[in-house]
């Protein structure tokens, strides 16, 4: 096997890991900080080289480690290398010099974990690098050290601990059921395991926290507004996809039909796609709105997993559409977060051009014609035809409806960030070189449909263009209709204010439930338990004083006097029975 690819794969993990560890030291060489933004470079180089062997085995490492690039990991590695690289480059110009060592230490550790879990083909390495990425992300969330950042970081790390425990349980059960740590060899076996339901439940919980599924998404709207723009770009563009990759690795997709679980994933995903838009429309911060947009888009991907669980025979085609959607969403969402950060750091003269640049990823996410969103959503819609009619019809209706909802949400984002919007804070002088990483990302989004169109069997037909245009046009006409009347604008604003929930929405309910339980435990320990113990002690004392101990002693003495006679009788009976059996 060519030695170049194994070297690049090792460097893709080792290089950012080394940079992150050195930057965490009190004293470090100055050149390390200059190299810190380029931790993703080996990963980018590795993904452009075709792999002659699909798997690299290291038997002596961690119970036998399996590494490599396969058709699933290659698109994830491409997205990670590109977005981490551009975000690191952008951070080198946007993060203050006094804070860069702290930022890039956590940044590179999270990068190493992200690349490691993408390349890992066995459960143990996947879990270790998943944990590294999750824990290192905490440092990115609390980077600003504000009260909001500490609150977001605390909620995030609590959910991470819960998720890691669930993932560990899922992988432990899977390894025990399959008798192997290899994902490739475990998947066919898990479909027939008695532990399948428990594995699916814990995998949904553990990976769902990272993927932001409905009910487990509450950390995302808190983390994105407080994290620096480069951190938000990789959190939403790449790291949120680690939960999706965990499902792809572990679930028996393409192996076994699981109607109940497929329906569960589909209903949960499609509900999230619309719920997140409704809550996102009521938000007053642009990055919080983008966080809810990510929850909505991940809902579509969650539902696609359910589609695969329902139709294992169509899984190869579904997987291709899903991977294209992953690339499309990661690039577009990364560009929106970076653009929002750049807009805040731009002077008045540059703000108009930056805002115009935001339209490209926004239109792509909406699925407008000739964008990556049109390509991804059309391919995904084609796969829904494989479903039974009672599932295919809702998909055919709800996918265009989700495009309308996404267009409305991103339209509100563009209005919130518009240069003439008095609610938007004034810009600052732009750092030198800030524009180049973002421009490269925008160029990648523009070129995406052409590149993917050559790889995937897709035809730019008039029907496909019309299907992608109508949802965007419907949303645009709705906005135009509302904006033409002052009374309609006021009524819409009133409705949004009525529906407004703080970032995290369901988190308030969770926190109140936890506080109620803790208050009950404190009340039990402080008031109820001592009262119950005292009452029990009083009853015991009353019972002790009410008993006639002399009478009890007399009865016990009488019973013991008869005990030797009874024992002798039992012994004689045993001897008689034994003698009879010998005859």
TrEMBL record:
Protein family according to the UniProt entry: Belongs to the CPA3 antiporters (TC 2.A.63) subunit D family.
Classify the main location: membrane
- Which intervals hold domain NADH:quinone oxidoreductase/Mrp antiporter transmembrane? 120-391
* Pfam families registered for this protein in UniProt: Proton_antipo_M (PF00361)
Q: Please name the taxonomic classification of the source.
A: Bacteria, Pseudomonadati, Pseudomonadota, Betaproteobacteria, Nitrosomonadales
Keyword tags: Cell membrane, Lyase, Membrane, Transmembrane, Transmembrane helix
Q: What is this protein called?
A: Formate hydrogenlyase subunit 3/Multisubunit Na+/H+ antiporter, MnhD subunit
Q: Which domain of life is it from?
A: Bacteria
Looking at the UniProt entry, the stretches that span the membrane are 6-25, 32-52, 72-91, 103-120, 126-144, 156-178, 198-220, 232-250, 262-282, 289-311, 317-341, 353-375, 395-415, 436-452, 464-482, 560-582
């Amino acid at each position: 096997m060519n030695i170049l690819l194994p070297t690049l794969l090792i460097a893709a993990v080792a290089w950012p890991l080394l940079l992150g560890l050195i930057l965490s030291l009190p004293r470090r060489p100055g050149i390390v900080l200059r190299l810190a933004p380029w931790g993703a470079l080996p990963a980018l180089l590795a993904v452009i080289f075709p792999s002659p062997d699909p798997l690299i085995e290291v038997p002596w490492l961690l119970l036998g480690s399996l590494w490599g690039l396969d058709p699933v990991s290659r698109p994830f590695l491409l997205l990670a290398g590109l977005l981490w690289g551009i975000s690191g480059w952008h951070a080198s110009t946007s993060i203050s010099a006094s804070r860069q060592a702290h930022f890039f230490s956590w940044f590179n550790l999270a990068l190493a974990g992200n690349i490691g879990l993408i390349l890992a083909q066995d459960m143990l390495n996947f879990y270790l690098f998943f944990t590294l990425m999750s824990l290192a992300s905490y440092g990115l969330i609390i980077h600003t050290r504000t009260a909001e950042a500490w609150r977001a970081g605390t909620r995030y790390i609590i959910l991470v601990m819960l998720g890691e425990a669930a993932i560990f349980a899922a992988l432990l059960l899977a390894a025990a059921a399959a008798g192997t740590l290899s994902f490739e060899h475990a998947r066919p076996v898990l479909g027939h395991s008695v532990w399948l339901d428990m594995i699916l439940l814990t995998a949904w919980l553990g990976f769902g926290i990272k993927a932001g599924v409905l009910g487990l998404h509450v950390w995302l709207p808190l983390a994105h507004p407080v994290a620096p723009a480069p951190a938000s770009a990789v959190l939403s563009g790449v790291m949120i996809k680690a939960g999706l990759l965990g499902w792809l690795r572990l679930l028996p997709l393409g192996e076994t039909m699981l109607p109940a679980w497929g329906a569960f994933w589909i209903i949960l995903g499609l509900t999230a796609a619309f719920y997140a838009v409704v809550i996102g429309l009521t938000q007053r911060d642009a990055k919080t709105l983008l966080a809810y947009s990510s929850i909505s888009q991940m809902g579509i991907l969650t539902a696609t997993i359910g589609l695969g669980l329902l139709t294992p025979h169509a899984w190869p085609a579904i997987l291709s559409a899903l991977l294209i959607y992953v690339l499309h969403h990661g690039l577009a969402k990364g560009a929106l977060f970076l653009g929002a950060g750049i807009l805040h750091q731009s002077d008045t003269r540059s703000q108009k051009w930056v805002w115009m640049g935001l339209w490209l990823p926004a239109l792509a996410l909406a699925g407008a014609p000739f964008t990556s969103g049109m390509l991804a959503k059309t391919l995904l819609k084609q796969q829904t035809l494989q479903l039974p009619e009672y599932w295919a019809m809702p998909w055919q209706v709800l996918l265009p409806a989700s495009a309308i909802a996404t267009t409305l949400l991103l339209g509100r984002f563009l209005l919130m960030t518009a240069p003439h919007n008095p609610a938007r804070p004034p810009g600052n002088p732009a750092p030198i070189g800030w524009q180049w990483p973002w421009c490269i990302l925008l160029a990648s989004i523009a070129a995406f449909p052409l590149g993917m169109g050559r790889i995937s069997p897709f035809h730019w037909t008039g029907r496909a263009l019309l299907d992608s245009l109508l949802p965007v046009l419907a949303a645009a006409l709705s906005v135009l209709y509302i904006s033409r009347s002052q009374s309609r604008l006021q009524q819409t604003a009133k409705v949004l204010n009525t529906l407004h929930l703080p970032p995290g929405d369901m988190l308030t309910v969770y926190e109140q439930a936890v506080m109620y339980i803790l208050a009950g435990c404190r009340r039990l320990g402080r008031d109820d338990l001592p009262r119950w113990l005292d009452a029990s002690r009083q009853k015991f004392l009353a019972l002790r004083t009410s008993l006639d101990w002399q009478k009890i002693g007399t009865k016990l003495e009488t019973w013991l006097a008869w005990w030797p006679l009874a024992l002798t009788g039992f012994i004689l009976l045993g001897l008689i029975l034994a003698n009879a059996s010998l005859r």
